[in-house]
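Comment thread on ticket #2218

A.B. wrote:
> Attaching the input chain for the structure job we discussed in standup.
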Amino acid sequence: MRRQLAALGVLCVLLPGLVLHTQAAEAPAVSAASAVLLDGETGRVLYAKDENTPRAIASTTKLMTALVAAEYFGGDLSQSVEIQKDWTGVEGTSLYLVPGERLRVETLFYGLLLPSGNDAAVALACVCAGDVETFVAWMNQRARDLGMTHTHFSDPNGLGDENHYASALDMAKLARACLENPTVAKAVATKQITLEGRQLVNHNKLLWQYEGCTGMKTGYTRQAGRTLVSCAERDGQTLICVTLNDRDDWADHKALLDYGFAAYPRTVLAQGGEELARVPLEGSLLRRAAVEARETVAYPLKEGEQVTTQVDLPDTVPAPVVRGEIAGTVRFLVAGQVVGESYLVWSQDAGRDVVEHRGLGALWDFLQGKQTLAPAPEGTQP
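C.D. wrote:
> Ran it. Output below, let me know if you need it in another format.
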């Protein structure tokens, strides 16, 4: 039999209901038409303004271009390619590709994300998929995979038409996927780099202006206005910020990131390897076996939010138990919603120590009149 408890004996002592007491932070007013602030670890939305409205996104599009290309190449950007004439002469910001020159995919990739080369976007699309149309179809499929329900791409660089759009929340989902890809995450965090004679400088001023900024992507067209996706890390917490059509995006991102770190600090609910409970053992000299969280569980909590704990563990367990094997689960809830969970695993080995003495047991049963002793087999001594 198993039991499900809101709080379990020793767990009540080790992990009582958590209430975070911090100084309240007030959400800033921003000039963006749409904005969202997201916790990168959990996906919790910390701030939102018209976050689901589809809007033009300009060159922040290139985050999806980079993600699809990085996944296509499996992170190996060493391949050398010959630049084709059809990939050059693209309007707007450019890597100034020359037909016939040979460049590594790495140069195209960093040229896409740092100086925001529109020609680099076309080149990468064609190298990966053979043509732009096929690559754009891949981009739209990847958007569906990520749950970007208010998004549609029509090109790999963001110069697009009325059929090229995304919502601020969708762009935050994309940014979160980019951070999980080490190739993309490394590139967007690079301030400047020289590759094959080209000095590439990142357009994202927050890399210089905001302490803890770990990158992302700028964008601008007359249709979209100023668009910006940024991310920053502080005290083990990563925040993602998106603004669309924002005339004061640098200031707004700084204010939103400051607000998120102050108002929603990362709070550890369970530390991986930390003992959370003990379960009675049967058949062992060790009366109780300890269980621990298999992984660390954390959540961004604002002032006054209370965490409740649900534990699913057996009433008792027969020995033996093996360290690291799953014993149960622990879940953490805020306002009735699960915000984190972990398997509970045994913290130690515990063997079975009860030895059955069959001869003595039979003799005792005979003395109690419960059975008759069987005769000794032939050829044995009484």
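A.B. wrote:
> Thanks. Noting for the ticket: The longest strand covers residues 225-234.
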